[in-house]
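Hey, quick one: can you model this chain's 3D structure?
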Amino acid sequence: MSVETILNILDRAHTGPFCTVHDWDAKIIPSKVKEKLKEHGVEKTCTPQDPINADDGLVDEYFKAGFELAVDVGMLCLDTERVVKVTDTELKEVIRNAPSELPMGEGRDKIRITHRRPEDRHPPIQTCPLGIVVSEDLFIPLVQAIAQYRIIDLLEGPSLETVYGRPIRSGTPYETLAGRVQASMHKEAVWRAGRPGMGFDEVITSPTVFGQFGGYGVPGGFDPKRHAALILSPSELKTSYTSLHKVVHAINCGGFIFSGTFVLIGGYAGPPEGAALVSVASNMLQFAVHQASYASSPIMDMRYMGNCGREAQWANSVAYQALSRNTHLLTGAVTNQVAGPCTSMILYESTVGMMNLSVSGVSISVGPRSAGGKYTNYISPLECKYVAEVFKGCAGMKRSDANEIAKAIIPKYGDKLRYPPKGKSFRECFDLETLKPTKEWRDIYLKVKKEVMDLGVPLEYP
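Sure thing. Here's the predicted structure for all 462 residues.
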């Protein structure tokens, strides 16, 4: 990370080609995506019947097309309506100089994120959970219960619903205070779990810049030497003053950056092929524009706001294999489940999604996003443990084998993606005194685990 680089990016955000947000979304992105798909002969290549790709030639072509898209289009700064352009030479240099491994945490809890290739035997890193909103009184016991599972490497969520009982209003001093309070609560929870050295991606309770200003790099806050500054930006291929403020703040603190955004099937990128292409370009541009140490551009399907269906799984497999085969970048991803805790469906979704990410060469995953992140307190530590088990357990699997397993599991939940079961809240499926799952939830977990193991998923039982 460097001041000179961010100054160049900021200059371009004020002097680059002018483009309205409307024209960017409705004209530039759709037309350029369609153009690149056609030029590289990858239109209508999605194979929903085979949700996990195993064609190296196809993903290599997507990488070439994605690189060209990144150079041709760049990223739009929403606040100035100027396009931040990156040249071919600059992008190649950014990719060449990006880290291929990164330490996080300290002591017994220190881990190392490493670049992985498709079918890589090296186990990936699991971060839990996404920023699902939880009640203030449940934050510490929930995080403690998640951290007690040592198979989980890092922490990101959950997000606080209130701070000292007050609603956290975006862009107000409540948010600034919440950033510092979340840091204290996270550190208290991991200390109680006996894992004080765990690394974090933070500040997740930061809808604007103020949460990060309040919690990252301040006395008593998240330590920039071992915790990543989390920078999330809007899709497709956009940045903003909020994101760039966070970049500068991370530089000021001497920290490092995890940058992420979603790409949407059915959005401005269009079909699964377009989403895969934009994901490739977006991942690379986050290293160039946001100076990411690791980055994430997972694909979601707007029809059900998840990504465990056939088309989204295919698109994610293509995008991440393109990056992991052709660069040494540290790529992050998200499996976005729509079913809630204490259901078989969330475990089936997790099995397919995490297996796919593992065999596609993803370095680090964040999740789960239980119940699609729609409900307060609908996250439990057991599905956090399960996603880590599958993600790590599938390292070294052949993509063709994973594809056959996915084809057997998706019919168990595919017709429920638009109307998934809500499941049960943390209070309802975990004992808050022992921090153990209820018998009902554990029985569901063991049943599904045995079932997917019989299909060939390499897990340990129980």
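One thing worth noting: The chain is about 45% helix and 15% strand.
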